[in-house]
């Protein structure tokens, strides 16, 4: 599995102002609907419910919200770069500015876990995060994410 398989360019965006996690989840839901045809309300509710189990802020300014929903036919990715970092109750208590959400079918099983591991590995790379933070153009952000994965596979 590669990031280019789960992340469409249309599902990458820079957001100038986001005031809360709830607002962020709404932005993610709307992007999931416009990019993948998923039900925005279902995505928002699933992300909020999953976040209720424990924060998905993994540290170093990165959050990996994820959820399973009915209606998804495969694992889908959504990437947001926040111009103003958001308090996300991350494990290191640092605000989050890079958000990679995964939406998976209810029956995704191991594919959901593989995608989560792939995104986690990619965003654990400090040079990738630096490049993402230095750019705001969605096409450039998509290229950084997908090319990085391809070069690791080679």
Description:
- With 154 residues, the chain is α/β, with parallel strands linked by helices.
- The protein is 47% helix and 22% strand.
- It has six helices and six strands.
- The protein has helices spanning 3-6, 21-36, 40-53, 110-123, 126-133, 138-153; strands at 12-15, 57-59, 62-63, 66-69, 76-86, 96-105.
- Strands 1, 2, 3, 4, 5 and 6 form a six-stranded mixed beta sheet that branches.
- A hairpin with a 2-residue loop joins strand 2 and strand 3.
- The longest helix has 16 residues, at 21-36.
- The two termini are 13 Å apart.
- The model is unreliable at 149-154 (pLDDT under 50).
The residue ranges in which pLDDT falls below 50 over 5 or more consecutive positions are 149-154
Largest sheet: 6 strands, mixed
Which structural category do the helix and sheet elements fall into?
A: alpha/beta
The run of helices and strands is HEHHEEEEEHHH
Percent of residues in beta strands? 15-25%
What would the average pLDDT be, to the nearest integer?
89
Helix content: 40-55%
- Gap between N and C termini, in Å? 13 Å
Counting DSSP E segments of at least 2 residues, the number of strands comes to 6
Radius of gyration: 14 Å
Mass-distribution shape: globular
